[in-house]
Amino acid sequence: MRKPMLAVMAALVVCAAVYGEEAKTEKKSGCCCGAETRSFGCIDTKGLKALIDAKAPMVLLDTRAGKFDDGQRIDGAKQISPEASDAEIMAVAPSKDALVVAYCTNLKCPASKMLAEKMISLGYKNVVKYPGGIEEWLKAGNKAEKGAKP
């Protein structure tokens, strides 16, 4: 249990360092860590990969829906739309204390930010956004599962 928690802490420290400067220019960069959205953090590709490799306990959520969902998922991700009902959200993330990582297509996609804000309003305490999304994940040479479209 100690190894996954260390990985979580290390990943979040990396994120603070990587996105800390971008927080000042959120509107330009699309990063979610700016002054307007301090209720949840961001994680970069290296941090997310470290969490996955360490098998850290987390709920990984792909927020793409409709024509934007090509069925590819980061390994272990569950699909849920920001328009999902409270009950649907609670079904994929039953513990409000669990680490939740939400992603969508790329920096320009608002879906993961919308879901993260909704989850915070529902009382989830550890919500993190992966702003690079599936595009950055694949560009970094990581693999994705090909599942059926919802």
SSE inventory with pairings:
Layout: H1 2-20, H2 26-29, E1 41-42, H3 45-53, E2 59-62, E3 72-74, E4 78-79, H4 86-92, E5 99-103, H5 111-121, E6 126-130, H6 133-139, E7 144-146
Describe the structure concisely.
By secondary structure, the protein is of the alpha/beta class. The protein has helices spanning 2-20, 26-29, 45-53, 86-92, 111-121, 133-139, and strands at residues 41-42, 59-62, 72-74, 78-79, 99-103, 126-130, 144-146.
The tally of structural domains comes to 1
Which percent band covers the strand fraction? 15-25%
CATH class category name: Alpha Beta
* N-end to C-end Cα span: 33 Å
Q: Structural class, please?
A: alpha/beta
The parts where pLDDT drops under 50 for at least 5 residues are 13-37
- CATH architecture grouping: 3-Layer(aba) Sandwich
CATH topology value: Oxidized Rhodanese, domain 1
| Major sheet characteristics | 5 strands, parallel
Radius of gyration of CA atoms, rounded to a whole number: 14 Å
Shape estimate: globular
Please list the strands of the largest sheet in the order they lie side by side: 1-6-5-2-4
Could you estimate the helical fraction of the residues in percent? Answer: 25-40%
